[in-house]
Specification:
Distance between the termini: 26 Å
Number of strands: 27
CATH architecture of the largest domain: Beta Barrel
Number of helices: 2
Radius of gyration: 19 Å
Structural class: mainly beta
Shape: globular
Helix content: under 10%
Largest sheet: 6 strands, mixed
Length: 346
């Protein structure tokens, strides 16, 4: 069960470039979500959440597709969060790859003011972008005859109504591909240009999981490094810096910026220039997860802020109040087992 407020206190202890924040408060913002992944805010302070969708027990082997994936818009007030709109998307569920899992709406971002109610989404400042994870070819190859249209697409949503349009209308967006270990640019005509390959781990693929634009305009990409973490212990994840306008060969365009993180799942920069990342596991390489802050001017300094109290975090964004908002229970297949929480530290 989620507590409405969890307070975690500790002395500031620094070891080998890593620190633990003094006091952390974690407050529930929105509950009852199914596989919440990406979170974002627009300039009006509205909160957007991507929900991967519900899991249905179909036994090992086949994939299934439901219409339970969602992109949600919430209005936050002192009285709590109220739903403005919710747009449904295809969601894939299966239990054939080591455990029950759900894939659907994953990354989400809001551009501009999110639209007033009478704007009908006509201005460029009214865009909400959502990417639907998984490959339609991969799913159909595993389960012949399964048909759907939305998996693997990037969508633009009307910020006022949530009405979606396909990727041909989004343009000039950067997307990470965890399966291919690449960072790509989606052009205005829908074509894709690979700009960087994320280097492999000692044992397996590094698996990039998040990207955020830094104060210098470069892209910063965090990695999961799950197999190396299980084998060698915590601290195997990295953050790479990529110049989106680089002329380097894509195989050499990613440059190591920070190390020592553990199973990164999401990342962002705050308005002060600090890099933030959610970690699936806390620094002891066990659940639940955590939240880490890295100063832009000193990427060797890592401060853990979540108190090891964020179960399976999947998305992160700074709110208009300066707090960090994190989706938790992102891989929890329990019905309505996910949430968004507000994290503050001192």
């Amino acid at each position: 069960m989620l507590a409405a407020l969890v307070a975690c206190g500790a002395m500031l202890i620094t070891t080998a470039g890593s620190a633990v924040a003094g006091t952390t408060s974690i407050a529930l913002v929105v509950g009852g979500l199914n596989g919440p992944r990406g979170v974002a805010f627009d300039r009006q302070g509205s909160l957007y959440v991507a929900e991967a969708g519900q899991y249905f027990d179909i036994g090992p082997g086949p994939f299934g597709v439901s219409r339970t994936g969602k992109a949600d818009k919430f209005k936050l007030t002192s009285g709590g969060a109220s739903l403005v709109w919710s747009t449904s998307f295809d969601s894939v569920y299966d239990s054939a790859h080591g455990g029950p899992e759900v894939l659907g709406p994953a990354g989400i971002s809001a551009l501009g003011n999110g639209c007033m109610s009478n704007s009908a989404g006509q201005r460029l400042g009214c865009q909400v972008l959502v990417i639907i994870s998984e490959s339609s070819k991969g799913v159909n190859a595993t389960t012949p005859g399964l048909t759907f249209s939305q998996i693997g697409h990037l969508y633009r949503l009307d910020g006022a109504t949530g009405t979606p349009s396909d990727r041909s209308n989004v343009g000039d967006q950067h997307v990470i591909d965890a399966g291919a270990n690449t960072v790509s640019e989606v052009m205005r005509d829908g074509t894709v240009r690979v700009i960087a390959f994320i280097p492999n781990d000692q044992l397996r693929d590094s698996t990039p999981t998040c990207v955020s634009q830094g104060p210098d305009g470069a892209l910063y990409v965090g990695t999961l490094d799950l197999i190396d973490t299980f084998t060698f212990g915590p601290g195997q994840s990295h953050v790479y810096r990529i110049d989106p306008n680089t002329t380097e060969d894509y195989l050499h365009a990613a440059h190591l910026w920070a190390s020592g993180l553990t199973t990164v799942t999401a990342c962002t920069f705050d308005r002060s220039g600090n890099f933030w990342a959610t970690e699936m596991f806390e620094p002891t390489a066990g659940p639940p997860g955590d939240l880490v802050r890295i100063p832009f001017s000193n990427p060797t300094s890592l401060t853990h802020v979540g108190g090891g109290s964020l179960p399976v975090p999947g998305g992160i964004a700074q709110g208009p109040d300066g707090a960090i908002y994190v989706s938790i229970g992102s891989a929890d297949t329990t019905l309505n087992g996910g949430a968004v929480v507000r994290v503050t530290s001192s």
